[in-house]
Amino acid sequence: MRSHTIIRLLATLIVFAPLASLAAADEPTNRPVKFARFKVGEQTLFGIAEGDKLRQIEGSIFGKWQPTDKTYNLSEVTLLVPTPARQVFALAGNYKSHLNDAEIPPKFQIPQPFLKPLSSLVRHEGKIILPKDATEEVHYEAEMVIVIGKRAQRVSKDNALDYVLGVTCGNDVSERFWQNDEEHKDIQWWRAKGADTFGPCGPFIATGLNYDDLLLTLRLNGKVMQQERTSQMIHDVASQVSFISRYVTLLPGDLIFTGTSGKTAALHAGDVVEVELEGVGVLRNRVVAQK
């Protein structure tokens, strides 16, 4: 090979190497990455978790991004709800272990999503506030939360994972009296599952995992109360995304709480509840009474 040909090849590699790096960043689901949305002073930033530090990124986690040389200690930032979501969905009855029936009832043989208001979301280390008129039956519900990565409208199950950025931890806090009491229950779950702070979410978005086989654990004051793998979901991640997108267009940053497993129990003022999702991290919140 002539020397000038080698020089041209080297020049091509030098020019396109940064573009190749950026292309990899443009497809974060192809490799494991843990994103965080955080606040420093008055700035709201996105970064990548690196041990006990966050590396700031420039660009958008929903498109092109690349790391910068600026890092922060986790101890000096405030971790926020991982995305500025515009829609929040949650699934009812998506684990057989959470249903009372031995077999899956017909209505749960298709995904059963409902909406949670944006004001229900609360960050890692934020407070879960028990409303003054709530009963003693405000329960925790550990859940994996899907984070939508790009606009999804009527997507097939085969292609649905292409629209998922990653997953995070969630807690679908639920007031069972408002939700289930036959004489007094509300027509909709608007306050039973949508009251302010009833949707803790975070702290990181993890990409590039097998979302359909992760260990999900809830601890109440350090005691394990729920533990099951996401492989036990009745409807997997692709099925949920595809089904919802048939009727409602999903947007980048939207969240889908994927349902809870097993049995749940009440939260009380002073409790500390932790939701841990394999490969993601631990979502921790303290429970307080409304003043």
Structural class, by secondary structure, is: mainly beta
Tell me the total number of β-strands: 19
| Overall residue-averaged pLDDT value | 91
- Rg, Å, rounded: 21 Å
What share of residues are in beta strands?
35-45%
Low-confidence stretches at least 5 residues in length (pLDDT < 50)?
A: 1-29
Q: At the third CATH level, what is the topology name of the largest domain?
A: Fumarylacetoacetate hydrolase, domain 2
CATH superfamily of the largest domain: Fumarylacetoacetase-like, C-terminal domain
The level 1 CATH classification of the largest domain is: Alpha Beta
State the helicity in percent bands: 10-25%
* Number of helical elements: 3
Q: What is the H/E order?
A: HEEEEEEEEEEEEEHEEEHEEE
Shape: globular
Largest sheet: 12 strands, mixed
How far do the termini sit from each other?
79 Å
